[in-house]
Design a protein that fits this description.
Elements (H helix, E strand, L loop, with lengths): L6 E6 L4 H13 L3 E7 L19 E5 L5 H10 L4 E4 L6 H6 L1 H24 L9 E7 L46 H20 L3 E6 L1 E3 L8 H10 L4 E4 L5 E6 H14 L5 E4 L4 E3 H15 L11 E4 L14 H7 L7 H14 L1 H7 L3 H10 L3
Parallel strand pairs: 1-2, 1-4, 2-3, 4-5, 5-6, 6-10, 7-9, 8-12
Antiparallel strand pairs: 9-11
The protein binds nicotinamide-adenine-dinucleotide (NAD) and 2'deoxy-thymidine-5'-diphospho-alpha-D-glucose.
Protein name: dTDP-glucose 4,6-dehydratase
InterPro entries: dTDP_Gluc_deHydtase, Epimerase_deHydtase, NAD(P)-bd_dom_sf
Family: Belongs to the NAD(P)-dependent epimerase/dehydratase family.
Length: 381
């Protein structure tokens, strides 16, 4: 059956936040590709994220663990996989601080198992690695942390400026692709390690790999342990907003659909063995984001704008909390012509509206173990 498709692409972690947007984009945009979504369905994986495309003829879901080499090998052969877009991972920094083993297991050993499955499958074919691609999705956190300095940085090069009023840089240094890796958290250490394994498979065996490192994503279907969905949900229910430390840490935010668009472009046109940074030139201090979330949520709920500012609660800081992430994504713009499609204000408005309109989705993912997680993570802060 697979032979009738032009390409057979395995997307790992496709039931998670970013993965579900990538799966949706590929299934809808490429009816002549077979998209095989391989996901273990951990607490972060949710098939409700893909309800709208689950019955498409070019889509297959397989519940499987990337750490299971034999199953990965069998899926590669059975579906004649010629491209892999690898997103499956443990992704939450706070969880990695509590349980680093799980992060090493999934992110390092899982990536290695997938690489080895691809290697043994592709090397056994007459054409070998020709026409194949292993695309690994990574994070800007591998570069470590930048300092807050004067607010002058590189001017945003995008025609769609990240934000109309807000300035976009909190320092003069940015993460570029040639920077040395300096991960600090168990999460970023595990992602750094997996990036090294991917590059090693190119350098040692000639596998056609690509790595991209992206900044903080926001948008629909993000699990509400992460800052933006957690806080929207708490504002709605008038629960305290646990801001770590002073809330002065800076992150560069990108709308998730723009990350998925970049992945599509790089999968098709990126240079083998290369690395691309993906980011929005859109830096915000956490406390300023929180204020935007309160104002927007209040307004959309028909409350007085800013009425819920008193929910802001400063709590014990995250251990080893990285101060500032700032991605320089000019290489991707210059070489492949990518730009974000919308301004941050538009993206946040869409996002808040989506969570308010999809309370069922939130209720579903916050039932069960989520309550226990919330208690454990926040009661002692
Ligand atoms: P997520 O936690 O929302 O989703 C991860 C998905 O991977 C889930 O569906 C989960 O079930 C699946 N998964 C976990 N372990 C698995 C295993 N052993 N086998 C198969 N599936 C497994 O994560 P996300 O935020 O969508 O991030 C996706 C990828 O993008 C990750 O690799 C992450 O490091 C990277 N990334 C995330 C961001 C961000 O802001 N969220 C930014 C840059 C890079
Ligand atoms: O930079 C890319 C990374 O962005 C991805 O690789 C990770 O997978 C993703 O989780 C994200 O990591 P962060 O740690 O930056 O995201 P998080 O939403 O957890 O936190 C954003 C900022 O908000 C961070 O400075 C910590 C702070 N924070 C977070 C939570 C959950 C709070 O102040 N309070 C909170 O309750």
């Amino acid at each position: 059956m697979e032979q009738q498709f032009k390409r057979n692409i395995m997307i790992t972690g496709g039931a998670g936040f970013i993965g579900s947007h990538v799966v949706r984009l590929f299934v809808n945009k490429y009816p002549d590709y077979h998209i095989i979504n391989v996901d273990k369905l951990t607490y972060a994986g949710n098939l409700a994220n893909l309800k709208d495309i689950e019955n498409q003829p070019n889509y297959t879901f397989v519940k499987a663990d990337i750490c299971d080499f034999d199953t990965m090998r069998q899926l590669m052969e059975q579906h004649h996989i010629d491209g892999i877009i690898h997103l499956a991972a443990e992704s939450h920094v706070d969880r990695s601080i509590r349980d680093p083993f799980t992060f090493a297991h999934t992110n390092v050993m899982g990536t290695l198992s997938l690489l080895q499955a691809a290697k043994t499958t592709w090397e056994a074919l007459p054409e070998g690695y020709e026409g194949k691609r292993f695309y690994h999705i990574s994070t800007d956190e591998v570069y470590g942390a930048l300092e807050l300095t004067d607010p002058e940085g590189i001017e945003s090069p995008f025609t769609t400026k990240a934000s109309s009023e807000h300035h976009h840089a909190y320092g003069s240094k940015f993460f570029t692709e040639d920077l040395k890796y300096q991960p600090h958290s168990p999460y970023s250490a595990s992602k750094a390690s997996s990036d090294h394994f991917v590059r090693a498979f190119h350098d040692t065996y000639g596998m056609p790999t690509i790595v991209t490192n992206c900044s903080n994503n926001y948008g629909p279907y993000q699990f509400p342990e992460k800052l933006i969905p957690l806080f929207i949900n708490n504002i709605r229910h008038r629960k305290p907003l646990p801001v770590y430390g002073e809330g002065l840490n800076v992150r560069d935010w990108l709308y998730v659909v723009d990350h998925a668009r970049a992945i599509d472009l790089i999968f098709h046109e990126g240079k083998v063995a290369d690395t691309y940074n993906i980011g929005g030139f859109n830096e915000w201090k956490n406390i300023d984001i929180v204020k935007v979330l309160i104002n927007t949520t209040d307004r959309l709920l028909g409350r007085a704008e800013g009425e819920d500012m008193n929910l802001i609660t400063h709590v014990t800081d995250r251990k080893g909390h990285d101060m500032r992430y700032a991605i320089d994504s000019r290489k991707l713009q210059r070489e492949l012509g990518w730009e974000p499609s919308l301004q941050f204000e538009e993206g946040i408005e869409k996002t808040v509206r989506w969570y308010l309109d999809n309370q069922d989705w939130l209720d579903n993912v916050t039932s069960g173990n989520y309550q226990r997680y919330y208690e454990e993570m926040y009661s002692k802060r």
